[in-house]
Every structure is written in structure tokens, then in C-alpha cells.
Amino acid sequence: MDIVLLFKALILGIIEGLTEFLPVSSTGHLIVFGDLLNFHSKGKVFEIAIQLGAVLAVIFEYRSRFTHVLTHIGKDPAVNRFVVNLIVAFIPAAVVGLIFSKQIKEVLFNPLTVATALVLGGFFILWVERRQSTRPPKVMHVDDMKMRDALVVGLAQICALVPGTSRSGSTIMGGMLWGLERKVATEFSFFLAVPVMIAATTYDVLKHYSLFTAEDIGLIAVGFVAAFFAGLLAVKALLKFVSSKNYVPFAYYRIIFGGLVLLTWAMGWVDWNA
Questions:
Q1: Looking at 37-51, 59-73, 93-107, which range is the least confident one?
Q2: Contacts for 85 with CB less than 8 Å, ≥ 6 apart
Q3: CA neighbor of 186 nearest in space, from 197, 171, 199, 198
Q4: Do 62 and 205 meet the contact criterion of CB atoms below 8 Å apart?
Q5: What is the pLDDT of residues 170-196, one digit of tens each?
Q6: Contact of 264 with 257, CB cutoff 8 Å
Q7: 63-97 pLDDT per residue, tens
Q8: Alpha carbons 146 and 13: distance in angstroms, whole number
């Protein structure tokens, strides 16, 4: 197997794991860095498949919570409410994504769309954080969330279908605007990632299974493992970070990173062909 391709898969796996749960758009980063590395998989099967590595990082980090849910569903009212909330939040983006996924990938999966969404999303995060600094949150624990809270988060997640917007950014900021405490919005975003990403990955893998080759399996394995360990690091770090700080630094990162991509395109320094 080509060692250069394996190295590229390793880099993209690390990028996926580090960015999946941060409000900076993992898909956007994979598109931009995939273009820089000249790494493009047919049907985006590599980029989609390695997301499961990041999902497993959340499951591992919250293994006691998920075990409790699986063993008490139907018995514990709090667990039942939690599961219903995940289902309610999952449905909006799943339906819209299922209907428009082909058009979204054909039209929006390119570095310039990503860069624009990163910049606009950065300014949006700055606005949300400034607004929330004067408004105390109404929901202080994930288990206190009601169905309408979950629905609002789910509707906000639809925005993440535009690459560069960020799934975690959309759900966290949408939750905070609605009144979820910052850490509550972050944790619910983590939990929601599990059914969303498993469903999206399964759908795309089954849809594009004919595109897989023996070489793809090796690349995906490398990216998968890298995404898992990088994702585990990111989840732990982000939870610790939001316990005492806000998302403003991520907003500035988005604006700078997206701005640099747009600048290099405008000046003709980089030929963004993805």
C-alpha cells in the first residue's frame, strides 16, 4: 500500500477527530485539507467512514451513561425522556439530509463554500456569546431538557448540512440561544452526534459500497483509529474548557482560518479545485 496515502489518511483522521466535536466544522476541514493534500475519495466514502472513529470516542467517554440508558430504557422515566429527546433532535436534519444529500454534496462540498460558512459562523458565535453573557440559562442539566428543547436543537442542526457550518457549532449555539447552559448544550451535542453520525455513515457506506476497494479498507482503518484517539482527546479537552470559558476563541479561529482560505483564493495563491 502507498505509504504516502497512508500518511494522508492518518493526517485526515487526526483532523476529523480533533474537529468533529469542536464548533469549527470537521467536514469543512476535511474538504479543505483534502484539497491541499490532493486526497479525494469517490463519493466521500473515506471522509464519511472515519467519522465512526470519532463517534466511538464519545461512546467510550460516556460509556457508563450509555450503558445506563441501554439497561434502563423503558424502566426509568429520565432515561425514556433522554432517548425521546435524542430521537426528536435527530429527525429534522435526518429528513432534510436524506432528501437533499446528493444536491448538497454536488453543489456545496468545496473549499470556498466551507471558508464562507466558517467566517459567517464565526461571527454568529461571537454574537451568541455576547448575547448570552447577559441572559442566564434556563436549563442547567441534560436530564432537565424537555421535548421542545430537543426539537429546537434538532432544527438548528439542519444548518450543519452546509459544510463549514459545523454540526456541533449549530447544535451548541442553537441550544444556548434557546436557554441551555453552555455545558448542557455541549454534552447534548455529543450525545446527538452518536445516532446522527452512525445513521449518516451507515447510509453512505451502503449507498457507495461498490466504490470500496481493498486499498480503501486500509486507508479507512488508519483514519478510523486516528479519529478515535484524536476525538477522545478533543472531547475531554472541550468539556474541561467550557466548564470555565466560552466559545469566543473558536469563533476567532473560524474567522481567521476561513479568511485565509478566501484570501489565498482571491489572490490566486492556491487553486482550490475540490
A1: 37-51
A2: 145, 146, 147, 149, 150, 188
A3: 171
A4: no
A5: 999 999 999 999 999 999 999 999 999
A6: no
A7: 999 999 999 999 999 999 999 999 999 999 999 99
A8: 35
SS3 string, 122-162, reads: HHHHHHHHHHHCCCCCCECCHHHCCHHHHHHHHHHHHHHHC
C-alpha cell at 199: 445513521
Q: How many CB atoms lie within 10 A of CB 200?
A: 20
Q: Give which of 257, 20, 234 is closest to 122, Cα–Cα.
A: 257
The whole-model pTM stands at: 0.91
Taking the CB of residue 214, how many other CB atoms lie within 10 A of it?
7
User: CB–CB of 128/177 below 8 Å?
Assistant: yes
168 touches 185 (CB < 8 A): no
Show Cβ contacts of residue 18 under 8 Å, excluding neighbours closer than 6 positions.
230, 231, 233, 234
Q: CA separation (Å) from 135 to 29, 40, 182?
A: 32, 44, 12
Q: At residue 228, what is the residue type?
A: F
Grid coordinates representing 226 are 486516528
- How many C-beta atoms lie closer than 10 Å to residue 168's C-beta? 26
Q: For the CA atoms of 126, 249, 139, 83, what is the dihedral angle to 10 degrees?
A: 110
- Write the CA distances from 48 to 27, 124, 269, integer angstroms: 9, 26, 29
Q: Provide the 10 A C-beta neighbour count for residue 161.
A: 17
Alpha-carbon separation of residue 45 from 31, 74, 267 (angstroms) = 13, 36, 32
CA-derived radius of gyration, the chain: 18
How many CA atoms within 13 Å lie on the side-chain side of 133?
A: 10
